[in-house]
Amino acid sequence: MAQATSQRAPAACRVNADRLWHRLMALARCGATAGGGVDRQALSVEEIESWHVMIGWAGAAGLEPATDAAGNLFIALPGLDREAPPVLAGSHLDSQPGGGRFDGVYGVLAALEVLTLLAEQGVRPPMDIVCVAWMNEEGSRFAPGMMGSEAFAGVRTLEAVRAARDADGIPVAEALDALHAAFPSLRRRPLGFPLKAYVEAHIEQGPMLEAEGRVIGVVTGIQGKKTFDVVIDGERGHAGTLAMAGRRDALAAFARIAAALYSEVGGHDDAVKFTIGRLQVEPNAPSVVPERVTLRIDLRHPDNEVLDLLGQRLVALCGMHAAPCKATATRLVDAPSNGFDPALQVAIAAAAEQLGEPHMPILSAAGHDARHVAALCPSAMIFIPCRGGVSHAEHEWAEPAHVAAGADVLLRVLLPYAAREEGV
């Protein structure tokens, strides 16, 4: 690293857009799919590969990598006071099974690019500025998602995180230990260390910015979310001999429950988002009356009172329409809507103005790790458009110019923390 100084990087500087784009495309090779997307699920071999790449880039820039007991990855630009609460910026590296090249990883690489640029200019901030990649944001392999940020924020115990299993019965504990074994010399940071601030850049995962012709979204908050596992227990029977009137058909009960849920919960108002995203039928044989159906429900709404009301109604409807079977609803996630720090929102909008990038306030319809970090320190998010609003798909796309613009906004929001005189 060049000779350290506490001075601020020049206000007119820009990120290296070519390097940022190259790194996005390079990490897309870790878990690349035939359709041009990414399958890099949490704590997988593919994610471990991405860690090797990230740590290599960090080392070349003179940055310091570390991890913690929950498998979060931290890459620090060392500050003058190593004990002071650091500033964090980042997102996640894991993807959906058929995900895209930008979801999550963009925020991590934008943060790494900012740190790399500051290191190249010899900046040594008053406190550490840290790029973070949170473990298992997606929840596609291990449920629920956001395990790393939840463990960091104390929302979920490390023991509960380690006990979760994937569809093959592999516990997080085993996969997490394998991750740590792959990096035996990596320094461990304590879970939940104090933070100065947190900023997360991300693709919007929706169509609003593109539709409005805006490049930067100043995220005001994240809508609330509840997820449920519902198990419907009936009784197995022979499809050819058991009379219809005598059946305890779990799939028939599911059909009644699903119709009621889509009508009364999904149809409550225009703001509600209701999804049955996973369904398992047992024994799943063509000549056997199903004895058990397990479903996963995703329920979201920006109004916490409405969200709570709909959650209660959901549980009641499952019970009302299950007979002669039995339905048990277990709540997995209960995350209320949250707002982001007003001063950081102002800083994001001001940075966009300085860069001449059109911007707008926007509520995040998708969940992000910033939801949990916002309870620990001033936090905010920066959105950039994605083509057609498409995400969690192989054809997810962000324009190179927008990728660079979001990183430049992030740089300007973080610059005050890199100077001796702090503040946003």
Automatic annotation (TrEMBL):
Q: Which residues take part in binding Zn(2+) 1? A: 92, 103, 202
The UniProt entry, under InterPro entries, shows: Amidase_Cbmase, Bact_exopeptidase_dim_dom, Peptidase_M20, Peptidase_M20_dimer
Q: Which UniProt keywords apply?
A: Hydrolase, Metal-binding, Zinc
State the similarity comment.
Answer: Belongs to the peptidase M20 family.
Q: Which domain of life is it from?
A: Bacteria
Entry cofactor note text?
A: Binds 2 Zn(2+) ions per subunit.
What is this protein identified as?
N-carbamoyl-L-amino acid hydrolase
Q: Can you name the source organism?
A: Variovorax paradoxus
